[in-house]
Amino acid sequence: MKFFDLHCDTIGECYLQKQPLYRNHLHLDLSRGAEFSAWTQCFAIWIPDEIRGQQALDYFKAVHQTYERECTQNKMLVTPCIENDDFVRAERLGACGAVLTVEGGAVLGGNLENISYLASCGVRMLTLTWNGTCEFGDGAMVTHPKGLTKFGRQAIPKLEQHRIVVDISHASEPLFYDVAEIANRPLVASHSNAKAVCNHPRNLTNEQVQIIKQSGGLIGLNFHPPFLKEDGIATVDDLIAHTEHFLSLDTQDSLAIGSDFDGADLPRGICGIEGIYAIFERFLQLGYSEALLNKIFYTNAQKFFVSL
């Protein structure tokens, strides 16, 4: 099968735990991912909420060195995807198409000039906030949140100019709507579920889903149990319940996978990327067509990035 994952935190864990990307004890590695006939993985560099200013950019640089080293050491297995044609080439070669992303707009240190620096590093997507407040505005876990700051309003068009996808996972609702009002390119929620199924601040309302869909963007299903089920005890069937709800909103061309591997806990019975096959099979058992599942697990995200 083919697999495209919009979000994992694995490269940050490789940096922190001094683990290799080829084979490790984390949620994913290249040796396990090589079982897919085609595989594209977005590798996020997460900026913790306690890191701000120049320290945030320095942290990005440190993790980015790990990312570049791992790509170089495993160059027969990894194709960094920076230009759109790279995605097609990675698929043709049977290599992991590696997409560099950042989780947390604090990486910019409040400096708009750092957007061009991120682009020069090959960053293709930026999650504007994490849970708290950064220079862009407030994340989903902020009490009485506000929307985009002046800096955030200046940064959105510059991100779009540099072909860095705006990711609104973790955004507070006021920030989400401010972004939707000024964005000219598609929006992505790389790892977010449905609030109608699980009422968690990190999940999307039906109205937000429609806005993302109408923008031509993507929604990546998140595996983290507290986002799947309110008691935090989840199985693959809870993931499927979110899928069913999203599909009821006519998102068959917008829905994708955003596992949050190595940044979250996993549903019962899933230990890591090798569990993707079991998830796919469970969908089939419940009557989902293989054609639809191929869109959710690969084609929707592949087409999106190739056409940017």
Walk me through the topology.
Elements: E1 2-8, H1 10-17, H2 30-33, E2 38-46, H3 54-73, E3 78-80, H4 84-93, E4 96-103, H5 114-120, E5 123-127, E6 133-134, E7 137-138, H6 150-161, E8 165-167, H7 173-182, E9 187-189, H8 206-215, E10 218-221, H9 225-228, H10 236-248, E11 255-257, H11 276-285, H12 290-306
Parallel strand pairs: 1-2, 2-4, 3-4, 4-5, 5-8, 8-9, 9-10, 10-11
Antiparallel strand pairs: 6-7
The profile of the biggest β sheet is: 9 strands, parallel
Number of strands: 11
Mean pLDDT comes to 98
Shape: globular
| Element-by-element helix/strand order | EHHEHEHEHEEEHEHEHEHHEHH
* SSE class: alpha/beta
C-alpha termini separation: 24 Å
Relative helix content: 40-55%
Low-confidence stretches are none
Strand residue content:
15-25%
Report the C-alpha radius of gyration, rounded.
Answer: 18 Å
